[in-house]
């Protein structure tokens, strides 16, 4: 299997996630708080066979991680190269809408709108560690999902950290959700069939958006799709993982930097605001049903498991899909059978929430 930059954009990882993953590909190095001798001699040992060639590509050819303003600037330079080509038969429009109170206007990309119909919709938030990526780069990938599900998708060009802290980007995303709901008729959307979806940091944003929707009681949601979500600032800072988890893809160093940029303070401390961290929320009851998917050697595997457990105990209908031996962003390896099964489960979760026939 030959892996190219273009494959990232054509895959489920999407352009924003590809930038983050490519920029943060890890070589086996010691992590803070873990003795150097504890680092696995071969970081591929715990990777599933279907993903080892891709993992080797990152280990041998990946650039340094994003863990400083200097490396962030370099990583931001090449993201557009990963974007998937757009489908000519699925309409896309760019909308600039008013932001929330005291916030600037927000740019949205609206995919597959058909006025006069009443179809389900997805509000999408892109990945990139809170510091990278662009909604515009995700359009080609999202067109394929919109076509398969016969739905509308709105993806939000939220402001990135560190230029904007979490309070600003959360409001950008909420403004997009509220606009989608209020303009349902002109978009051809059923207000009672709106879901959230995000990958990596976008999964963290989707989780925060689900909490905001519950608390503000303006937009009902049928589902939140959280794909290898970035949920807990303590991962890689005050909470260390075994050396083989997070060794490939998004690393602990990059995670600490991303959270510090997003929060505006050192992650992991006792005074971190829960409003910016889904896993620090004390009450998860009343949230939309959830689908959470993550790889077994992803840095986010433990926090995803814990969030799924807490959602379940809070009475939230939760489906959890673990892909054994898969690293962060594994789904760009489209031909791997575990990826196919994962994508099928994700799409069926959406179909079930939308009241559509399942793909059995």
How would you describe this protein?
The chain is built from eleven helices and eight strands. The chain has helices at residues 5-10, 14-23, 52-61, 69-75, 139-149, 166-182, 184-187, 201-216, 252-263, 301-313, 337-354, and strands at 92-97, 106-111, 119-125, 152-156, 189-199, 223-227, 290-295, 318-323. Strands 1-2-4-3-5-6-7-8 form an eight-stranded mixed sheet, sandwiched between helices. Strand 7 (290-295), helix 10 (301-313) and strand 8 (318-323) form a beta-alpha-beta unit. Helix 6 packs across helix 8 (201-216). The chain is globular, with a radius of gyration of 19 Å. Residues 1-30 form the signal peptide. Keywords: Hydrolase, Signal. Residues 122-330 form the Alpha/beta hydrolase fold-3 domain.
Structural class by secondary-structure content: alpha/beta
CATH topology: Rossmann fold
Give the mean pLDDT.
91
The gross shape turns out to be: globular
* Percent of residues in β-strands: 5-15%
- What would CATH call the homologous superfamily? Alpha/Beta hydrolase fold, catalytic domain
Q: Could you give the count of β-strands? A: 8
As a whole number of angstroms, the C-alpha radius of gyration is 19 Å
- What kind of sheet is the major sheet? 8 strands, mixed
Summed up, the domain count is 1
CATH architecture: 3-Layer(aba) Sandwich
Stretches where pLDDT is under 50 for at least 5 consecutive residues are 8-13, 26-39
**Name of the CATH class:** Alpha Beta
Give the termini distance in whole angstroms: 28 Å
| Helicity, as a percent range | 25-40%
Annotation field: number of helices? 11
Strand line-up of the largest beta sheet: 1-2-4-3-5-6-7-8
């Amino acid at each position: 299997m030959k892996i190219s930059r273009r494959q990232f954009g054509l895959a489920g990882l999407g352009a924003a996630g590809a930038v983050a993953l490519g920029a943060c590909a890890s070589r086996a190095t010691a992590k803070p708080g873990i003795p150097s001798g504890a680092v696995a001699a071969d970081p591929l040992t715990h990777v599933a066979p279907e993903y080892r060639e891709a993992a080797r590509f990152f280990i041998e050819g990946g650039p340094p991680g994003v863990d400083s303003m200097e490396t962030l600037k370099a990583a931001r330079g090449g993201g557009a190269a990963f974007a998937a080509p757009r489908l000519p038969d699925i309409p896309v429009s760019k909308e600039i809408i008013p932001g929330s109170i005291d916030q600037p206007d927000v740019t949205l990309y609206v995919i597959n709108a058909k006025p006069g119909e009443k179809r389900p919709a997805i509000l999408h938030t892109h990945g990139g560690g809170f510091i990278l990526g662009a909604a515009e780069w995700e359009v080609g990938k999202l067109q394929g999902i919109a076509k398969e599900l016969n739905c509308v998708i709105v993806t939000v060009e939220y402001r990135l950290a560190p230029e904007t802290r979490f309070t600003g980007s959360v409001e950008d995303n909420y403004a997009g959700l509220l606009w989608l709901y209020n303009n349902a008729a002109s978009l051809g959307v059923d207000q009672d069939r709106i879901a959230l979806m995000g990958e990596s940091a976008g999964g963290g944003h989707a989780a925060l958006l689900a909490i905001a929707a519950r608390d503000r009681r303006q937009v009902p949601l049928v589902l939140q799709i959280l794909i290898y979500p970035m949920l807990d600032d303590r991962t890689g800072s005050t909470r260390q993982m075994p050396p083989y988890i997070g060794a490939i893809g998004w690393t602990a160093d990059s995670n600490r930097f991303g959270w510090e940029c997003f929060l505006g303070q050192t992650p992991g401390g006792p005074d971190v605001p829960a409003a910016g961290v889904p896993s620090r929320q004390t009450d998860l009851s009343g949230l939309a049903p959830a689908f959470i998917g993550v790889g077994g050697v992803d840095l986010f595997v433990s926090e995803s498991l814990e969030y799924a457990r807490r959602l379940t105990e809070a009475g939230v209908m939760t489906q959890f899909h673990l892909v054994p031996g898969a690293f962060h962003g594994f789904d760009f390896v489209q031909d791997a059978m575990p990826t196919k099964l994962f994508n099928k489960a994700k799409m069926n979760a959406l179909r079930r929430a939308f009241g559509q026939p399942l793909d059995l």
